[in-house]
Amino acid sequence: MTQSFFSRRQLSLLILVLPGIILLLSLLGSEPDLPDWQASADRRVYLHTVPAQTGYRIHLLLPQSVPTSATDGLQQQLLFTALRHRIQTPDELGHWLQQQGWTVQLDTLPSHVRLILHSQQTPNDPTLTTLLQRLQHPPEVDWGSLLRRVQAENYLARQQTDTWLRLSFPTTTQHSATVDPLVAYRQWLQPAHWRMTLSGAQPPALTLPLPTPATTVPAPAPLTLAILPVPTPRVTLPITLHRWQLPVPDSVDALAMTLLAREAIHQGLSDWLAQRQTDSHSPAGFSLGWEPAGNATLIIQGTQQPSVRPWLPSQVTAANLEAARQQVQQLVTDAAGQSSWLDLLARHQLPADTLQRLPLPLEHIDSTQVQHWLQQQLETDYYHTLSLPASP
After folding, report:
1. Is the domain of 340 the same as that of 255?
2. Position 313 pLDDT exceeds 90
3. 215 and 256 share one domain
4. Domain range for residue 346?
5. Structurally, how many domains does the chain consist of?
6. What is the structure's pLDDT at 66?
């Protein structure tokens, strides 16, 4: 005769409390709701419905190519400064923006320029097209004076060691170059180059302009882009910059890989730094910049630096990858960062449901795959280093 594990009274209590336990576990274990985003057919416009939002928030994103020389970076700085002057000057564009009731903010990031607009009125296609067409008109400025100002800002910025490294390149053939600023400005601000994200209680479906024929404009004398020489910074500890290119995340799987690789590398570097400081008690440090479809920039400071190409992939261990996986999943579900995620999808024209599809590849990528992927990036011809020895 078999004996029951529970008495009749215990079974009655279990029947009463079991539904509550199941409900509690389901609530604790449920995944946070991810945003329901929509994208236009050409994936240039992404919509985010926020029922509680008053008015509309528009992010206009203009991609920038990765500089391959110091003069490339100087030209980008010159064009951005001209665009900022165009927006901030109280001319016909400024008056037009006031008439629309838009507040405007402009900032620059490593891979793109972002124009943030806030409006209480529903935006429409004609108004948006007019804005982008007006932005493409170059400002009426003394381009020579503007270039001298940008060169001075660049010179001052390179007084800092990290900035000196980031703005330096191994090439010795492009210390100067020439540019037609009006042509470069109009090509850069072609309306067809923009991407857009839009949020609001009921965001309207908008379209961005298609490419337009080039317009002939009076050209000033070409400008010579010259990098003002800066004394090599003096450092107390050796410091080395390692830079390599990152591929375009053109699919959900590719995005999962680059996100996991970045976090796993950061975990490995943090472990290496902690172990080094414990063993040798000597100062050391690192910083890691990571821009998908741009560059990875690793700066290491301290003595006895590792040889990054063979060493860095080995730091992606199974334990570090698991910590990286949890970190990426946390970032994806962080409500405060949803606007940045939507901008990332728009920049790379990824599917609108990318965040919903991301957990599966995140779960299945293993440390061997990440190591192989990273080794491929480090073995390209673009990989280079720049070092500053300790000053005597």
Report:
1. yes
2. yes
3. no
4. 239-388
5. 2
6. 85
Q: What is the pLDDT of residues 233-281, one digit of tens each?
A: 999 999 999 999 999 999 999 999 999 999 999 999 999 888 877 766 6
Poorest-pLDDT segment among 43-52, 215-224, 238-247: 215-224
Return d(Cα 363, Cα 386) in angstroms, integer: 36
Residue range 291-319: mean pLDDT, rounded: 92
Q: How much is the pLDDT for 174?
A: 54
Q: At 368, which CATH number? A: 3.30.830.10
Shared-domain flag, residues 221 and 313: no
The answer, yes or no, to whether residue 215 has pLDDT greater than 90, is no
For the chain, the three-class secondary structure string (H helix, E strand, C coil) is CCCCCCCHHHHHHHHHHHHHHHHHHHHHHCCCCCCCEEECCCCCEEEEECCCCCCEEEEEEEECCCCCCHHHHHHHHHHHHHHHHHHHCCCHHHHHHHHHCCEEEEEECCCEEEEEEEECCCCCHHHHHHHHHHHCCCCCCCHHHHHHHHHHHHHHHCCCHHHHHHCCCCCCCCCEEEECHHHHHHHHCCHHHCEEEEEECCCCCCCCCCCCCCCCCCCCCCEEEECCCCCCCCECCCEEEEEEECCCCCCHHHHHHHHHHHHHHHHHHHHHHHHHHHHHCCCCEEEEEECCCCEEEEEEECCCCCCHHHHHHHCCCHHHHHHHHHHHHHHHCCHHHHHHHHHHHHHHCCCCCHHHHCHHHHHHCCHHHHHHHHHHHHCCCCCEEEEECECC
Given 198, 226, 254, the domain boundary residue is 226
Give the global pTM: 0.86
- For residue 218, is pLDDT > 70? no
